[in-house]
Amino acid sequence: MTYFRNVVFIAAVCGLLAGVVMTALQAYATVPLILQAETYEGTEPAHDHGPAPDAGVAVAPSVQSHDHSTHDHGDGWAPADGFERTAFNALANIVTGMGFALVLVALSEFAGGIANWRSGLVWGFAGFAVFTLAPGLGLAPELPAMPAADLFARQVWWIGTAAATAAGLALIAFGRSPVLAILAVALMVAPHIIGAPQPTDYETPVPPDLHHRFIVASTVTNLVFWLVLGAAAGYLRSRFSTAEQGARNSFA
Predict the structure, then answer these.
(1) Range of the structural domain that residue 143 is part of
(2) pLDDT, tens digit, 9 for 90 and up, residues 2-19
(3) What are the φ and ψ backbone dihedral angles of 159, each rounded to 5 degrees?
């Protein structure tokens, strides 16, 4: 029971810390871009009717990664701009952080646990690769007023890609076999060969530069989130392990 309690406590503390850090980064890096993109909602994409029309804007769709909570679009209550929106965003980030931390700590225990904060950085980067980097190759973070494929289809592809990437990384790290390494690569590549669901229309009033900056900002904030989560998990687990070892020695 003590072991389970320690795992839950570590996940809770790490999720709280990573969620707060994520909220601060989002307030600086991504929220201003989301607010800017929201001004394009309800507007028509620009068209060039000149003799040499532009090829158009091809925007990669994704699972919803922006926050629609600022505005009331006629489908119910939404938090107001300012403190209320930030508070709900922070709550969502903390709860998400705790969930990811619980998965990270629990899975790492099957491999002997995270020894220290340096090892935690490696596990954190693996989490970033599984849940952000790999799915983002097919479903880039999107802004308001951007087209998107069917939500259910995107969710299925996202989950499948994360699972395949996690399995592939595990085979590479713990398989110790060329055959398993080849299987791992095949698993990680397969979702991208199948391809992520795409919208029928790519036209959007959102400028390509704004979307590009949002992709970069969202990716970087998620990277920091996962590194903080992993490092904190490794640090706290090492402290608990040291304390438990000291307690056992004192009773020996």
Answers:
(1) 2-43+56-148+207-251
(2) 777 888 999 999 999 999
(3) -65, -45
